[in-house]
Amino acid sequence: MAVLAAFFAGVTSILAKCGIKQTDSDVATLLRTIVVLLFAWGMVAAVGSLGTITEIGGKSFLFLILSGLATGASWLCYFKALSLGDVNKVVPIDKSSTVLAVLLAIAFLGETEHLAGKLAGTALLGVGIYLMIERKETMRSGESRAWMFYPAGSAVFAALTSILAKVGIDGVESNLGTAIRTSVVLVMAWLVVLVKRKPARLAAIDRKELLFIILSGFATGASWLCFYSAIQKGVVSVVVPIDKMSIVVSVVFSYFVFGETLSRKALLDLLLMLAGTLAMAVYA
Q: CA-CA distance, 158 to 98, in Å (whole number)?
């Protein structure tokens, strides 16, 4: 399930990039959230778990809401970053959430089994992620580095999402938990669009970009359902690194779709990340 989550997340990045060439990133986030919400509640209806919503405890509800808020903040930062930078620059920074999520899982969830192996795998991941981030000298002339704050913010909030969701999903059917969290994200996305006075832009969206935004929403919904099923059954410190290997899918598709190439060094860095993930999976 974690591998499937990674695949759909990687496809999401490409589809989303195609959908925000002209469309405002906040508006795109709102539209995608609506699609994901419909997808998630549809799955709840399909598996028949809606009746169990009254059985969810107050603690689980609180942490599902907090994880939804963290997810919304992560999405807003991520789509802003995609609208400003290349996919193969944004995604590595965003995926640094992996290292933070693993460390938080060890510290707060007590996932200390095979600690040495996990830390070694995390170190490889960290080195690979760090080296994947483009250096200043490789940037285009006159290109600003301000966009880097957005994927960094996305990474921090994504790491918090994993920890908060692990607590909130305990004893809750995973599809239902995903739907509740997505409802929170939708409220947050609407508030951002309203506060920034952007509702009028909804009517001006290019139809082609709207199609890609909708498709990215379906890909996100599929990724989330797989991810929260995996995180409910597995351990965060292993599921998250596997999920974050969506960077491989993103990099491959960005080459064929956008012509974004990787240097030999960047390819080596990507292999380091894969080695770190495999090491953590072996020690699971």
A: 9
Give dist(CA 264, CA 280) in Å, integer: 25
- Of the listed ranges 18-22, 90-94, 204-208, 262-266, the one predicted with least confidence: 262-266
Helix intervals (H) in the chain: 2-19, 25-47, 58-84, 87-94, 97-108, 115-132, 149-168, 174-195, 207-233, 236-243, 246-258, 264-282
Radius of gyration of the chain (CA): 18
Distance between CA atoms of 36 and 51, rounded to whole angstroms?
Answer: 21
The mean pLDDT value for 206-235 works out to 88
Confidence of residue 281 (pLDDT cuts 50, 70, 90): low
One-letter amino acid of 251: V
Q: Parse the chain into domains and list their residue ranges.
A: 2-282
Residue 132: burial class (beta carbons within 10 Å; 0-12, 13-18, 19+): buried
Q: Is 141 helix (H, G, I), strand (E, B) or coil?
A: coil
Q: What is the pTM of this model?
A: 0.71
Residue 219 near residue 13, CB atoms below 8 Å: no
Listed residue (93, 73, 36, 58) closest to 217, CA to CA: 36
| Each residue's pLDDT tens digit, 111-141 | 887 777 778 777 877 777 777 665 444 445 4
Q: What percent of the chain has pLDDT over 90?
A: 16
Average of per-residue pLDDT across 151-156? 88
Neighbours of 231 (CB within 10 A): 23
What lies within 8 Å, CB to CB, of 107 at 6+ separation is none
Single-letter residue type at 214: I
